[in-house]
């Protein structure tokens, strides 16, 4: 169930949250920072959770950050790569 909730979080974030559109509107840096803050919150919650439902919630939150980290982070990193690379 724990592994499944991580992938459900990825599925929800990939289909419901338009990360690419939001990053084009308000900027990649802010979207990337927001996903990192949510990821840090989820990891801290996973570390200190005492009940099983808390693990479910925080692992789902951790899955929600995946598209923001990958889609926005990758395109943000490509901006700093020169044409020579």
Q: Please report the total strand number as a whole number.
A: 0
Helix amount, in percent?
over 70%
Q: Average pLDDT, to the nearest integer? A: 89
CA radius of gyration: 14 Å
Question: Which parts are unreliable, with pLDDT below 50 for 5 consecutive residues or more?
Answer: none
* Structural class designation: mainly alpha
List the total number of helices: 5
Give the CA-CA distance, first to last residue: 42 Å
Summarize the structure in words.
By secondary structure, the protein is mostly helical. It has a domain at 20-78. The protein is built from five helices and no strands. It has helices at residues 2-16, 19-26, 28-48, 52-64, 66-78. Helix 1 packs parallel to helix 4 (52-64). The longest helix is centred in the middle third of the chain and has 21 residues, at 28-48.
Question: SSE layout and pairings?
Answer:
Elements (H helix, E strand, L loop, with lengths): L1 H15 L2 H8 L1 H21 L3 H13 L1 H13 L7
Helix pairs in contact: 1-4, 2-3, 3-4, 3-5
